[in-house]
Amino acid sequence: MSNPVRDVVPFFGIDREFRAHQEAYAEIMHSVFSHGKVLQGKEVSDFEKKTAAFCDRRYGIAVNSCTDALYFSLLAAGVQLGEEVLVTDFSFVASASCILRLGARPVFVDVTESYNMDLCKAESMVSSKTKAVIFVHLFGQMGNPEDIEEFAKSHGLVLIEDAAQAFGATYRGRKAGSLGLLSCLSFDPTKVIGAPGSGGMVLTNSEELARKIVMLRYHGRNEKSEYVSLGFNSQMPSLTAAILDYKLRHYEEWLARRREIAKYYLDNIAGSCILPFEETGSCHIYHKFVISSKNRDALRKFLSQYNIQSMIHYPMPLHRQPCFANFNYDHTNYPNATAISKEVLSLPVYPFLKENELQMVVEKINAFERVSNGRGC
Fold it and tell me: 250-372 — its CATH code?
């Protein structure tokens, strides 16, 4: 088959976003550097308040990453060395490495076809040592808040919400970031609103927990500038907060475009690929548009021949990652996560994807389907 030279259809569009908004970003940079408070400036507190309000929370505490946000949440919630924390088996490693970092034990739970934690299977994983559950809304779709909160309450568990991939998602009126004792957000550059670097936030309705997180993010310092406990250096730069604040104002516009792209994929990709679905009452933000194919690797190679970039999220379930090997997990407990990891493929989905690029992605996926079924292109 011929392999014509084509422009690349990039998986990420960060450079395109910059070109479209570079004048605004330059003005923001000038403003921040002019006042000189490049750490913990007013931009940070303003963004914390706006984000907390956006997610229906009382307090937002900006930190350097969602990885730190998760770790600080476990610490603030009182999870202790040797205790157990339930977490999904299919997610980015930070959803579980934060538990290791604390000296607690990650207890992995298999997933459903929505890619989110299977709460029915989680029931059987609870033990006398289980202290908390980290519920991850994967790829941009929330789990059912009522079910999640009832599960945690019925077992007396601290609920920590990992909303890193679901900022702006809703489920029957509930917003991602509003569940449980503490919620964690990510502003990684690849997110719906991404930082020019790294960024995260903890959300809570508890004044006491908010105060603990504020201390943790800066060396254990209290309001009197006394260093009363062990803390860390996990500050969000003022410039990062200012740019994220600007992007927050464009959120609805960018989300609408993501959902428009997702609809085009859903309406036009044909054949045997399993497409993502939106649960009734849910607003999926499509942080990732993830399809599933028995011929995933061959499909990815085929797309690459036409300079269409794709990615695999995630090629290995967490219980098989080497950093968790010492816990000797029973591999038979995770049939769905294991199967999914061999079949998922993420397609480009961002507001600056061009129409002809979107059409090209669909055209080539459908062409691959015809080829793989022996009918040629």
Answer: 3.90.1150.10
